[in-house]
Amino acid sequence: MKYTLTLSRWHKVAERINAALKEREANVKTAFTATTISPWNKNGVEEKAADIVRRAADDLALVEAGARAVAAIRAALALRNAELGISGKLAEVEGANRRAALYKAVIDGQRPDMVRPEVVRTLPPELVGETESWGLARRTALAVTLQTADRTLVESLRERLAREQQYATRLLDEIADFNREMLEIEVPSEVIGIAALAA
After folding, report:
1. Domain spans of the chain?
2. Which residues pair with 3 in a beta bridge?
3. CA-CA distances (angstroms) from residue 163 to 70, 91, 100, 159?
4. What are the pLDDT digits (tens) for 22-66?
């Protein structure tokens, strides 16, 4: 049966089918590899085994049909996404987010206890270390963090951060709009139930 849904809805349908298939796959594996009985319970074993095999065969057929349906849905989505340029936009979003994360890390990493390089020579001697009577300086465990990013750079990074965040948001909005596009895909009748599609 053919269904016409939005791209985002097709993604959800594929997820639902996959979730349902995992349970059926587990049932098939258990039925064919881990079915156990008590040795004293011999009555009706053949009928029970035949029933287990029937249910497992049904689940196996559903898994096969469902896997083909998911593959068809994903292939159709991939083609439509390529036509719309969604993958390229997602790659641009990833790049913008990566740049923004770096800018934010540098901005957030600025601390009041950092010292500008030109001020290091004027630090009090007790911060640098104690001097022995014979002129050798004993080093203490204290370390001074240099502030190598000046105000101009930090302000520039703030502007770039805002620009990259706006750019990523705009692209994500475009992608969301594209995901409202309609797409018609054939879904096998045996999969409609686990896909939660109306018959």
Report:
1. 2-110+149-195
2. 185
3. 38, 17, 9, 6
4. 999 999 999 999 988 887 877 888 899 999 999 999 999 999 999
